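Let's practice the habit of predicting before peeking. Look at the sequence and jot down your guess about where helices and strands might fall. Then scroll down.
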Amino acid sequence: MTSSITTLTLFRFSNLLDKIWAFGQMQFAHPHISKSPGLNFYKLMGSGRELGFNPLPDWGVYAMLGIWENEQAAERFFSKSEIYQRYRAHTSEQWTIFMKTRQAKGLWSGGNPFTPSTDLDEANPLIAVITRATIRPSKLVKFWRYVPISQRPIQQGCKGLIYTKGIGEAPLVQMATFSLWENMEALKNFAYNSPEHQVAIQKTRQLDWYKEEMFVRFQPYRSVGTWGGEAVLAAYL
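Done guessing? Here is the structure:
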């Protein structure tokens, strides 16, 4: 039975000194996080302003993605890790979503670190999605010209969309979106019935925007902390 889980933690930094500290950790935190017992794969990421892909950074929000051998390893990190306690001391808010992998396609840093879970809860309809890509430098201008159009349905509000945020390892070039949906129907309605999204898919194939891309679907099953002062998934879990 597959017991590995994925966590995504969002950190909010409110004052200037804490934002400077957070920016520095994009370089200096790696030696501490990489040694965490039971951590198979991780990424530290910044975020973009507003919703979805955005080339302008949000200096107040950072993210950590982790794939753990099991939930106990993740819990040990969040409760005992010195580096995580430092993050907590500098943040005004943290939110961690625990997830099981449903499906993963593509590559991230040359490999696919996600293993589909064998113990999904069929009574839990929630869907989380990470769409990640490394954009070819020669395609950057065309890509970012189209992004505002492709993001229009999200900006206007999608039925069944609980939350979304643009995250990424490097501004402009290595970008991702994280989104939470009430159910598969809501996700598919956006993916297949949004004209802007369909054009984006066609352009991806025609223009070969991406050097590397990955699409992962998860089942969120636990939420710890708050975001925007709210327990985001309290009504669902």
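How did you do? The beta strands are 5-12, 39-47, 61-68, 93-106, 127-135, 161-170, 174-181, 210-225.
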